[in-house]
C-alpha cells in the first residue's frame, strides 16, 4: 500500500455498541494484523476468553490482535506503534463515547506513518433520537453523527419491527448523504472495516446478510479525475469501495478508498488491481455500478 498504516476511527455515544462491534471484529478470522487503541475514558471490555497475555500497555489477543490504552499523549502512542518491530497492517481507534471523532480522526489520520481510512459512528436505534433532543448531550450526539463517513445502526433487533427504518429516515434528514448500515449484535461485515485484506490483495466477493459485494477489474489504466467523479456519484447504497488501479497519466499504482462520502487516491504498489464494492442494494444494481466504472478507463 502507501507505506502508512490506515486508521479506522470507531465512535458513537455511550452504550451505542462500539465495544460489541469491536469484539466481533477481534474474534473474527480476518487475517489482518491489527492494533486497537482504546480511549482511556472508557476502556474496552474485551471478552476475557480472547485475551492471551497482558502487559502494562499492551494486550495480545488469541487471534494475533493487539490492544493498547491511549494515555494523555495520543501522538506518543501512535509513534510507538509505528516503531514496533512488527507494526500493524491496520489500526482501529475506539473513541470515548463523549469524544468528538473529528478531532481524533484529524490527529491520528495526519500523524506521521498513519493515514485516515474512515470514521464509523455507531448509532443506538433505541435511544439516539431521544438523546439527540437532550439539552445536555444533544449537540454532542449530532456532532458525532455528522462526523461519520458511515453510520452503523445497532440494536435494531431490540426495537419494534418498523423502528429501524424510521431511525434510518431520521438519520437521512440529520446527516444527508451519509450511508447507513445495520449491524444487529455488532455484526458488521469486516469488509466495511477493512475493505482490503491485510495481504494487499482485493477481498473476494462474498455473500453476507443484507449486503452484496462485487469486484471491478478495470479494462486498462484509468483517468483519476474521471474515476473520482464516478466514485463521488455512487448511489447511497454503496458503502465502501477499495482496491487499486493504474494511473493512465503516470503509469503508477494508485490505492483507491471510498467510504461514504470520503474518496481518497494515494500511491500504492502496482500489483494491487481491482476495486471491491460493498452495497446494501441488490446484486443487479451493484453490477450496473461496476459496469459504469469502466468509463474511467482510457
UniProtKB/TrEMBL annotation:
* Origin: domain of life: Bacteria
Q: Which Gene3D superfamilies match?
A: P-loop containing nucleotide triphosphate hydrolases
Domain CobW C-terminal, chain residue ranges per copy? 211-294
Function description: Zinc chaperone that directly transfers zinc cofactor to target proteins, thereby activating them. Zinc is transferred from the CXCC motif in the GTPase domain to the zinc binding site in target proteins in a process requiring GTP hydrolysis.
Look up and give the organism this protein is from. Pseudooceanicola spongiae
Alphabetical GO CC annotations of the entry are:
cytoplasm
| Matches recorded under Pfam families | cobW, CobW_C
Q: What is this protein called?
A: GTP-binding protein
In the record, what lineage is assigned to the organism producing the protein? Bacteria, Pseudomonadati, Pseudomonadota, Alphaproteobacteria, Rhodobacterales
Amino acid at each position: 500500500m502507501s507505506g502508512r498504516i490506515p486508521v479506522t476511527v470507531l465512535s458513537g455515544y455511550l452504550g451505542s455498541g462500539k465495544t460489541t462491534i469491536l469484539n466481533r471484529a477481534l474474534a473474527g478470522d480476518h487475517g489482518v494484523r491489527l492494533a486497537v487503541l482504546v480511549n482511556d475514558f472508557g476502556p474496552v471490555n474485551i471478552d476475557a476468553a480472547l485475551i492471551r497475555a497482558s502487559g502494562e500497555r499492551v494486550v495480545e489477543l488469541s487471534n494475533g490482535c493487539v490492544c493498547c490504552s491511549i494515555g494523555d499523549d495520543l501522538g506518543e502512542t501512535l509513534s510507538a506503534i509505528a516503531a514496533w518491530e512488527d507494526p500493524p497492517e491496520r489500526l482501529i481507534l475506539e473513541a470515548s463515547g463523549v469524544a468528538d471523532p473529528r478531532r481524533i480522526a484529524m490527529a491520528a489520520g495526519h500523524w506521521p506513518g498513519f493515514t485516515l481510512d474512515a470514521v464509523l459512528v455507531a448509532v443506538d436505534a433505541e435511544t439516539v433520537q431521544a438523546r439527540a433532543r437532550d439539552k445536555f448531550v444533544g449537540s454532542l450526539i449530532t456532532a458525532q453523527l455528522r462526523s461519520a463517513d458511515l453510520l452503523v445502526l445497532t440494536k435494531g433487533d431490540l426495537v419494534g419491527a418498523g423502528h429501524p427504518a424510521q431511525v434510518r429516515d431520521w438519520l437521512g434528514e440529520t446527516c444527508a448523504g451519509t450511508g447507513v448500515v445495520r449491524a444487529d449484535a455488532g455484526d458488521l461485515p469486516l469488509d466495511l472495516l477493512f475493505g482490503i485484506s491485510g495481504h494487499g490483495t482485493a477481498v473476494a466477493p462474498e455473500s453476507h446478510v443484507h449486503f452484496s459485494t462485487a469486484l471491478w477489474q478495470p479494462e486498462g489504466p484509468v483517468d483519476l479525475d474521471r474515476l473520482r467523479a464516478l466514485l463521488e456519484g455512487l448511489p447511497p447504497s454503496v458503502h465502501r469501495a477499495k482496491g487499486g488501479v493504474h494511473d493512465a497519466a503516470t503509469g503508477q499504482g494508485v490505492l483507491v478508498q471510498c467510504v461514504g462520502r470520503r474518496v481518497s487516491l494515494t500511491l500504492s504498489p502496482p500489483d494491487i488491481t481491482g476495486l471491491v464494492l460493498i452495497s446494501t442494494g441488490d446484486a443487479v444494481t451493484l453490477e450496473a455500478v461496476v459496469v459504469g466504472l469502466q468509463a474511467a478507463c482510457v
